[in-house]
Every structure is written in structure tokens, then in C-alpha cells.
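so my prof wants the structure for this chain in the C-alpha cells format not the other one, which i didnt know existed until like an hour ago. anyway here's the sequence
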Amino acid sequence: MYYVYILRTSSNTLYIGQTNDLGKRLREHREKTRKSARYVRYFDSFNLVYQETFETRSKAMKREWQLKGWTRIKKEALISGDLELLKKL
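here's what i got, hopefully its the right format
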């Protein structure tokens, strides 16, 4: 399985990524290993606020790029589960 996830940083910014091992990836981010995303290393903390599961890496990567192209308002609607607002946007 592959995952697309959204993290909310301590500065209230959003980071979107994809992985095949979500637990391991979150540990890498928390421990600020050299494998963690450089962007996430600059923040004191973060919270996992959203995740989706996919059967293939290709599908996960397509979704990751789609979400990265969305506006902040649309991403927040997805995170909060506001499907009506999401459809309008």
C-alpha cells in the first residue's frame, strides 16, 4: 500500500508527501534524519492531519501532485472533510 499524507507544521503550514510506509516516514520526519523532507526539518513539530491509501505508487504520486496544485482553502476543506465546500472550489 502507498499513502499520500498531509502534515500541519508548528507554523500552520501544510506539507504533502507520499510513502509506502507511513509510520517509518513520520518517524524520519520527527527525528529529522537526513531522509526526512528538508522542509519539515525547519519546524519544531507537526501533526498528521490527513491521509489516503492507494494500491500503486503511480496512483499515490498522481494524487500527491494533484493536491500540491490545490489552493490552501481547498486543502483545508479536504482536511476538515467539508465535501460541499470542496465541490464548490
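also thought this was worth mentioning. The first strand starts at residue 2 and ends at 9.
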